[in-house]
Structures are given as structure tokens and as C-alpha cells.
Amino acid sequence: MGLSLKVMSLSDAAANRVREIVAGSKTPIVGIRVGVKNGGCAGMAYTIEAAESVNPGDEVVTEKDATVLVDPKAVLFLLGTEMDFKTDKFASQFVFNNPNQTSACGCGESVAIEPAKLDDAHAGA
Questions:
Q1: CB distance 93 to 85 below 8 Å
Q2: CA-to-CA distance for 14 and 96, rounded, in angstroms?
């Protein structure tokens, strides 16, 4: 049973890129999996990988014909986040507009994130 509050949303650019990744994959994948890991100068980093199947506990976000799986350990860190895809003259990458993020390092590769605090209405979800 998933959370009643939406874990993540996708911008049009992010959904387009996820669809491109799925369509261009050499092996069949269901979407991409997003998570967080400890590391980097600010404390945590986002992780993104191809997902061949849905793992037990994954939160499945399907939006604009794109599927993103959120690792169960990352759900509280990503609650309310918008995933976007940006291209500039130096890089093309997924970016996360995360209301739980408290700071980021200068290189943008590492962030500090507080777990979302669920109020009583969502505690039993």
C-alpha cells in the first residue's frame, strides 16, 4: 500500500527523458529507480539507475507515460519532490526540486536532506 501523499512528480522534460531512456535501453526496463545514498561533501547524493523490474517496497510513480520507481529507503527524503531534466552548455542531467533539502554543496552533486515529517493525517498511510 503506497502513501496517500504523492512521493514525486515529473516535469515534462523529466518524463520525456525517462521515456527516451526506457525506449533506448538495450535490455527491457520498466523505468528508472531513484534513491539516495550517504556520501558527498553535503552528506547525501541522489542515485538513478535503470530498473528492470519493480522491487518489493518500491513506490511507483507513473506520470506522463513515464515510470519512476522510488527506493523505499528514499521515500521520506523525496516526499513532495519534483524531478526535472535540465540541459545547459556543460551538462544534461536530472535535477530534484526537493522541499526536504536543507543545503547543497557548490558542485551540485551532494545535498543535505531532512526526512519529511508526516503529520497525524498521513502517519497511518
A1: yes
A2: 10
Delimit the domains of the chain by residue range: 8-115
Distances (CA, A) of 38 to 6, 41, 61, 63, 100: 24, 10, 23, 28, 15
pLDDT at position 38 is: 84
The two beta strands, 111-113 and 101-104, are antiparallel
* Neighbouring C-beta atoms of residue 6, cutoff 10 Å: 13
Fold observed for domain 8-115: Hypothetical Protein Aq_1857; Chain: A; (2.60.300)
What does the alpha-carbon distance between residue 63 and residue 60 come to, in Å, rounded to a whole number?
A: 10
Mean pLDDT of 77-92: 90
Angstrom distance (rounded) from CA 102 to CA 80:
14
Q: How much is the mean pLDDT over the chain?
A: 83
Residues 114 and 103 sit within 8 Å (Cβ to Cβ): no
Mean pLDDT for 10-27 is 96
Give the pLDDT of residue 44. 80
- Tell me if 46 sits within 8 A of 105, measured CB to CB: no
